């Protein structure tokens, strides 16, 4: 009986095809074969991702999971990884933050000193294996650019702020970004776009980043070219790809709220919208751009999503206060989620020359020799423009940009004043980034001190100062003027001190 039962459906199928032309029968058979090939391809992709996840877990288990719940600051377990070093100071054997020699980057040696990573908020690598937050078809793009000149001399051109551990928690900003986003996309769908000077350091700090997913741009062309390049390449790899761009140097707390906002943004993006994530403002900041909320989209899968009425540039203090008073504005954190093909469509409409150049590069991206030839021909001529100005602002006027208002904590660590707010301190005492024993104060309130040189810093009767003492440079300013450090960097360059920048 068991051998005869499968024959019945086959016989029915044959009789159902009686009378059909041979061409139709052949087309149906080919369609079935193609479907089988597609399903096999998907299974292979899933197996590949599982192998990568298992390899990563095995490596982390070999290194050892060392965690002490009694001494942890935030009570969040995490895997042990080496503290990221500062190549600028490697010869001096001092970290810009710690009072001990810099450990070498190693992923296998049991003799390496390890530090418990406490990524911002509650994001940890341990959350990934125990809960499936994966969003099928979602690709993470991490633009890693900029020199962070407002944090000079802590941040340098060759070792910018996204490579630094600015909170002494054992993970650099780009590592914390990786940890936070990995559960949504896996290593196979996480890409980083960076300049040639930072590729080596990024590979050291993100050992699980696939070589094919590290896109090297020949020179800085602002966010539109970087994100557009990733979109063009990923659209060729997967025409249905939804991409999310998240800066490498931002700090986020409240990961559940963050991941929920991203999941909503992906659902809205699938309906052909460019989606940004709006941050609830905690104060009338003059350093951030703003998004004005429009009408609700009434999507069941994204109940909080709204249209963007307009984007606002960085306002003065009075205007920022009026924005917050209305309740209709959110900070623009530069997080964008959209279909890769839709972003290219917007570029075709608003910046056709840029779109054409990026497509030319993407067409030969997988051929390394051809890639270099086309990059040399095309890249230098691409327009240098932020994604906001290039596509977000004009598309918002036409009702094609949406926003998901979010509740998680966020900061772009734009200067020493904002960095000071992220560090713990006793009441009315300065914040110290580094060894507390190297700072002695008397009648000093507020401010931030970075004892990066290893020598004693003594302060008497000065309030709200910014003191950054590095082995090769000393910066002294006030918190109120920390946004102007960028001007000082320019003056140093003009004075012939480029080697220290």
TrEMBL record:
Residues 141-424 form the Nucleotidyl transferase domain. The keyword Cell wall biogenesis/degradation does not apply. Keywords: Coiled coil. It comes from the Eukaryota. InterPro entries: GMPP_N, ManC/GMP-like_b-helix, Mannose-6P_isomerase_type2, NTP_transferase_dom, Nucleotide-diphossugar_trans. It holds the Pfam family ManC_GMP_beta-helix. Residues 447-491 form the MannoseP isomerase/GMP-like beta-helix domain. Residues 33-60 form a coiled coil. GO terms for biological process: GDP-mannose biosynthetic process. GO terms for molecular function: mannose-1-phosphate guanylyltransferase (GTP) activity. This is Mannose-1-phosphate guanylyltransferase. It comes from Laccaria amethystina LaAM-08-1. The lineage of its organism: Eukaryota, Fungi, Dikarya, Basidiomycota, Agaricomycotina.
């Amino acid at each position: 009986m068991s051998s005869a039962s499968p024959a019945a459906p086959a016989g029915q199928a044959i009789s159902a095809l009686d009378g059909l032309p041979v061409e139709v029968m052949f087309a149906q058979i080919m369609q079935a074969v193609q479907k089988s090939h597609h399903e096999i391809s998907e299974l292979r992709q899933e197996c590949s991702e599982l192998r990568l996840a298992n390899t990563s877990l095995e490596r982390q288990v070999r290194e050892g999971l060392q965690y002490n719940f009694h001494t942890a600051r935030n009570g969040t377990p995490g895997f042990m990884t080496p503290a990221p070093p500062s190549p600028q100071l490697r010869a001096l054997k001092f970290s810009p933050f710690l009072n001990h020699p810099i450990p070498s980057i190693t992923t296998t040696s049991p003799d390496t000193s390890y530090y418990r990573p406490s990524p911002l908020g509650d994001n940890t690598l341990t959350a990934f294996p125990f809960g499936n937050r994966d969003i099928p078809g979602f690709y993470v793009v991490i633009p890693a650019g900029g020199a962070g000149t407002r944090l000079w001399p802590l941040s340098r051109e060759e070792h910018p702020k996204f490579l630094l551990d600015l909170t002494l928690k054992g993970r650099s900003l780009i590592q914390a970004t990786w940890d936070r986003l990995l559960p949504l996309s896996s290593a196979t769908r996480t890409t980083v776009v960076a300049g040639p000077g930072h590729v080596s350091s990024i590979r050291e700090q993100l050992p699980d980043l696939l070589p094919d997913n590290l896109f090297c741009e020949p020179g800085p062309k602002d966010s539109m070219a970087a994100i557009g390049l990733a979109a063009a390449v990923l659209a060729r790899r997967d025409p249905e790809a939804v991409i999310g761009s998240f800066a490498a140097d931002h700090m986020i707390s409240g990961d559940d709220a963050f991941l929920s906002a991203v999941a909503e943004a992906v659902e809205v993006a699938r309906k052909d919208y460019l989606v940004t994530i709006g941050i609830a403002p905690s104060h009338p900041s003059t350093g951030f751009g703003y998004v004005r909320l429009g009408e609700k989209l009434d999507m069941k899968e994204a109940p909080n999503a709204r249209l963007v009425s307009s984007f606002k540039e960085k306002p003065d203090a009075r205007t920022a206060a009026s924005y917050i008073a209305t309740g209709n504005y959110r900070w623009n954190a530069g997080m964008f989620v959209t279909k890769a093909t839709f972003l290219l469509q917007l570029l075709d409409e608003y910046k056709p020359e840029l779109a054409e150049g990026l497509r030319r590069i993407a067409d030969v991206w997988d051929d390394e020799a051809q890639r270099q030839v086309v990059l040399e021909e095309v890249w230098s001529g691409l327009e240098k423009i932020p994604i906001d100005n290039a596509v977000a602002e004009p598309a918002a006027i036409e009702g094609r940009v949406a926003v998901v208002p979010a509740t998680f904590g966020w900061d772009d660590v734009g200067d020493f004043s904002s960095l000071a707010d992220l560090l713990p301190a006793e009441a009315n005492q300065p914040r110290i980034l580094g060894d507390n024993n190297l700072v002695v104060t008397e009648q000093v309130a507020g401010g931030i001190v970075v004892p990066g040189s290893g020598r004693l810093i003594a302060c008497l009767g000065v309030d709200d100062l910014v003191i950054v003492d590095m082995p090769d440079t000393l910066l002294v300013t006030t918190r109120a003027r920390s946004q102007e450090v960028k001007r000082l960097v320019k003056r140093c360059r003009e004075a012939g001190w480029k080697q220290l920048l």
